[in-house]
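Give me the fold.
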Amino acid sequence: MQDIKVGVIGCGTIGKFICESITKDIPELELLAISDQEEKKALELSKQLPKSIKIFLAEELIKEVDLIVECASQEAVKKYVKKALFIGKDVLIMSVGALVDDLDIVSTAKEKGAKIYIPSGAIAGIDGLKSAICGKINRVIINTTKHPKSLEGAPYLLENNIKIESITRKTKIFEGTAKEAATAFPKNINVSAVLSLAGIGFKNTEVALFADPETKTNTHEIYIEGDFGNITTKCENFPFPFNPKTSFLAALSAVATLKQIVNPLKIGN
């Protein structure tokens, strides 16, 4: 099997972790190029990797590799992923909330013979949900609890003049659909988008977000009800030390997905 050439868009916490994991643990993948909106980040990351990696603008990177890993932002998904699929390149998407208004990328991928990979992120139970959707699902609910500081800068907080420093106890700050959550908190609850894609859609997946100044974890509690029975899961995730918006498990799930791509043994659905 010929090595798959990989390009990573986004050189932040998750991008750095993915690049390091590819170079150390996935010999079937060749990390060829990286890109970041801030060139300084890409330069710093390239110096930390064990071998020289090319730095490209994202528009050029997608032309040079076989598989694009997006771990930058919803804006990056909207700007580059569809272009990559259109020229037949496979993509792995971390900022899944971007798909809330653009599911036609699936038809683009099908037309061009490309693949879209969505890691399960910082939650458990996606395999059960994918099985259950083959029957009838009545309800999917996710309740997420995070430290207020990890929500800083979220559009919903700014629009509703919610001051995170004023939150002194566990408080529900948002309740709505996954479609609404993807816009309200684009960097915080991509897991609700993953649930939506695997299950009953963005408009039918219910989301509640709690801010708790006492919590030390990013916690996701999921309830799925259908003809098969019920599924309840709870994940208490440690955040990255330098990026509290992101759970460590989310980055691990991306690496697991990359390993699954090249592994002849496929486990789960």
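The longest strand covers residues 137-146.
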